[in-house]
Amino acid sequence: MMLAVLTVVVASVTTGGMAQARVRAASKDLVAALRYTRTQAIVKREPQFLTLDVERRAYQAADRDWVELPKEMELAMTTAAQEVVEEGVARIRFFPDGASTGGHVEVIRGEAVWRIDVSWLTGEVRMHAGSPD
């Protein structure tokens, strides 16, 4: 009996850990796409955009195809008002000097949340574990 209880506890901890790992991996991919877009703005010497569609749970980096997150994940985004394309679709713009319009994106799956912050002044992209806003 004790073994069965322990198995259930280990399985639930492992499942929670797997969810956290999946959200972290998806967030790392999004961070790479943001950094790529910033680099493209600097190299091409013209503004570049990363577009997010929170309804589709998808994003598109400069000159790249759309990437959809797994169905169990959600996206949340805060960005400058002028970067809202339509309801549920917005972007972060990077400038040739590396700066950006800034904002943050959250990749969420249940209680597992990773927040990605983009500095408006420097365009620096940072990721950290967070909690839903």
Automatic annotation (TrEMBL):
Membrane topology according to the record: Single-pass membrane protein
Compartments where found: Cell inner membrane
InterPro entries xref list: T2SS_GspH (IPR022346)
Major subcellular site: membrane
Key words of the record: Cell inner membrane, Cell membrane, Membrane, Methylation, Transmembrane, Transmembrane helix
GO cellular component term, pick one: type II protein secretion system complex
One Pfam family of this chain: GspH
General secretion pathway GspH domain boundaries: 27-121
Keyword presence, Transmembrane: yes
Keyword Transmembrane helix tagged: yes
GO biological process: protein secretion by the type II secretion system
Highest taxon of source: Bacteria
Entry protein name: GspH/FimT family pseudopilin
Origin species: Pseudomarimonas arenosa
